[in-house]
Amino acid sequence: MKSRVLIFGIDGGTFNVIEPLLEAGRLPNLARLKAEGAAGVLYTVYPPLTAPAWATFQTGLNPGRHGVFDFLAPPRLGYHRRLQNASALGAARIFDALSSAGRTVGAVNVPLTFPPRPVNGFVVPGMLTPKFADEYLYPPSLGAEIRAVGDYFVDMDPAYFEEVGEEDFLRELRRVEEARKRVALHLWESKRPDLFAVVFTGVDRLMHFYWDRLELVREHYEWLDGALGEFLEAGGADVTALVVSDHGFGPAEREVDLAGHLVSRGFMTLHEKKGPSPRRFMDAVAKLDAFNLRKRLPRRWRAAARGRIMERLSVFAAVDWSETKAFPGTATQYGVYLNVAGREREGIVRRADYERVREELITSLDELYPGLAARALRREEVYYGPALDDAPDVYLPLWEDGVRLKEFSDDPAVAPRRRRPGEHRREGIIFVRGPAVAAGAALAEANLADVYPTAMYLMGEAVPAGLDGRVLAEIVNPELLAAAPPTYLDYDVGGVGYADGEDAAVRARLEGMGYLG
User: Lower Cβ count inside 10 Å, N or C end of the chain?
Assistant: First the structure.
């Protein structure tokens, strides 16, 4: 059983939106996959964050083993947490395993693929890539072929996440997605890799900012369904198709001030005010720019300038580390780190006092928002593996109650960022159809880590032993499964590594999208 596999990624795909559209007949290609194959909920990492989720998708491992818990490196490497990229992913990926097996692979816009590793095929990196450039592709010669097809964009300009109206936002989003589809479809058709993974991020952006305008979201799902149809047609009847998301989505109706809570309870201490906050400074600059001169600058200049300014004016400059026992992660991480002596650079919590202080923190956090069902969890209740010490010491599963974290600022006069009525959920999506898939098969509880071993099996390859994910055997034709059960091979899934550098333009892009708080 040798098959080609198409993985069509929908960043943020959720049945909360998809199911009503399926019932209304507005997503014919997804409906066909569901009828001819299997579909169900795909649970993601905890908390449901983009970076560790796509890392788990690539490696089949939980974050405690692949080492990526956020877009940013762990604070033990510095309180101004630098960006992570593919260098942080020390584990072997599905692209590596297939390349070793002599199969060809291709990836377009998969997060955490920059800088690209050599593979038996090609890589057009996704999020965290500073810009579209030949030296950021694998192989670099791919750039000329892509330019012959048309323009390509790594992502939307960060200005569009806060500084423009609805019409401009939607136009820019569609421009980026159309260019991505055009290039990815060309590479899928012309190079015919055995495994091809492409990720579309548009509905994630829309649902963050327009969850309360769901018709806009629905229209983009319809566009994606049409794009999926083009990829299916180009692949042919013998291709196995998997449509997956890195996480789901839902409304964010409430907000809690985690940083303020830590300050008020004595876990975090701020320096006495010595001047305007970074955000107030940036807001003032924006208001003074009455002629919108910033927007007339080249994108890379604007992003790089903003990144350098925010780096120098980091809000964490306000924290007095000599008096701080605990501090929050990013605005989307839902985690709290203890400031541990010997781990963080200015840590004060002794290892002997670690459990006592953590229990005091958990008790305090359980009082953060009365009435919430979710309780604070120790990190070892969530993950396991050699990288666990880099995870937040305590997690707050507030997303389960539709709560997001208020942006950390030492200045209450700072205007909030653009409102985000939608936030991530753990319940993502999976659709699978192919020659080996039983029509109408019922999916048992599936996890994002299962995509890697399942794709390997459906391609007729042995599955690396020791993955956290499993082959979703319940979707396979029973007769085929009995004749060709999964086989496993001794394959080194790897360790953990961290990137040494940080690109200011990338940091600015993520800040503009609201990921870094």
Answer: N
Distance, in Å, from the CA atom of 307 to the CA atom of 257, rounded to the nearest integer, reads: 25
Side chain identity, residue 482: A
Q: Is the peptide bond before 47 cis (omega within 30 degrees of 0)?
A: yes
Dist. CA 340–CA 255, nearest whole Å: 28
Tell me which residue of 13, 414, 494, 491 sits closest to 206, measured CA to CA. 13
Q: Is 176 helix (H, G, I), strand (E, B) or coil?
A: helix
Domain that holds residue 219: 5-237+247-251+422-505
Structure-block tokens of residue 272? 């006495």
Q: In angstroms, rounded to a whole number, what is the distance separating the alpha carbons of residues 389 and 320?
A: 23
Token duo for residue 212: 């309360």
User: What is the Cα–Cα distance from 463 to 56, expressed in whole angstroms?
Assistant: 16
Residue 510 lies in a domain: no
- Measured CA to CA, the distance from residue 490 to residue 462 in angstroms comes to 10
The β-bridge partners of 38 are 432, 441
Cα 410–chain centre separation: 27
Q: Which of 169, 93, 190 is nearest to 464 (CA)?
A: 93
Alpha-carbon torsion (154, 39, 170, 181), positive or negative: positive
Crossing angle (nearest 10°) for helices 299-312 and 504-512: 90
- Please enumerate in sequence order all residues whose Cβ is within 8 A of that of 250, keeping only pairs 6 or more positions apart, or say none: 14, 16, 211, 399, 402, 422, 423, 425
The reply to whether 435 falls in a domain is: yes
Q: Which residues contact 450 (CB under 8 A, 6 or more apart)?
A: 42, 60, 469, 470, 471, 472
| Judgement on whether residues 35 and 130 belong to the same structural domain of the protein | yes
d(CA 455, CA 195): 9
Give the separation between CA 389 and CA 398, rounded to whole angstroms: 22
Same structural domain for residues 452 and 366? Answer: no
394-403 pLDDT tens trace: 999 888 888 8
Q: What pTM, to 2 d.p., does this model score?
A: 0.90
